[in-house]
């Protein structure tokens, strides 16, 4: 039985694709959320037309399909309602897969919208099975009207039109939002290829099956506008981890204007995360894949060092006051406004990301603001490594000796070492298996907390990433 709290979505009506003598209308119903004017029951964000309706329908379907799919241990997955953010000049629709290893985001930019002004705020939108079927069958050149939010206040009072869903609050989504933006911020553009080339690669991938899940890892080398398959991770290669997960892009690639691949600039022989950005008329669809289908973003640990430092938590409160659903956040501008160094602003954004308030746009290489119904610290409260580190510090179980630290008590004591480059390592089982590839262990975190307290909040040591395998992902913190 799930121990997660229950989230209730209340919609004035079911979202639907409706036909009328004047054309087609896509009505996306909203539930709850936050806006500059408060927290209305059903906010309204946009009323107008989509300039590329068929492409938009295919992209919306990808976001909905990701939310309804488990790529690791496939099975029945609750179709959680996607999150939509209105940033004043664009709409962003996001979802995570049921296993939290795939993040999908559709950015409908100003050229893709023709209508009244876009509002500001974040909410959930109803994407039900009949709507998904209608989107899958949408074609033709007729215009498509888009309405995000109820037609009017009176729509909420019509008897029989009220729709309510009760689903477990997706805590893994919260940690996924936090970890994915930290991961993406370290990506670089690795390839830009024509849609036909990207489609050829996707067609060559194995399809997801109910029995096997996404287990295939492929490598491609960008070369002159092509992606050349290779059998192993040679220099310059880009990893396609859990490659079956990319096949969800098949319906949308026929509408693409270009495809970009983002990944870490340097990688060894281990599988790494990757993002595929599909350019569409007036839109961008980004699919971010975790390093393997068995590794959800919720367990990556990239936020832990910043969460472990007291200055970052205090700075986050100051930076949060400056956010207002901006489509792009300039770190330098925020630093000047908050009176903080850019590095401290980035750490503060990481902390705010644990409440789902920060995302990262690879195309613009910039953060953006959203607002979700979680409080900063919720992710921290559910992170066993961070809780364990704080307990070790509270028990006085950290003893510093220069670059060394003995962490723990009696037979459970481990040695944490920091080398001349500031990289930390530990003798515990977690470190032996992951070598920092999934963030620091609780012993490294605890040592960093104590060192920081003794140096006025000095930065925690970095962790060195080393190869990981799917076989070790069952280890817990």
UniProtKB/TrEMBL annotation:
Listed Low complexity bias regions: 458-477
Region feature (Disordered): 23-42, 455-477
Domain SWIM-type: 414-452
Keywords for the protein's UniProt record, in alphabetical order: Metal-binding, Zinc, Zinc-finger
InterPro entries, alphabetized: Znf_SWIM
The UniProt record lists the keyword Amino-acid biosynthesis: no
Stated name of the protein: SWIM zinc finger domain-containing protein
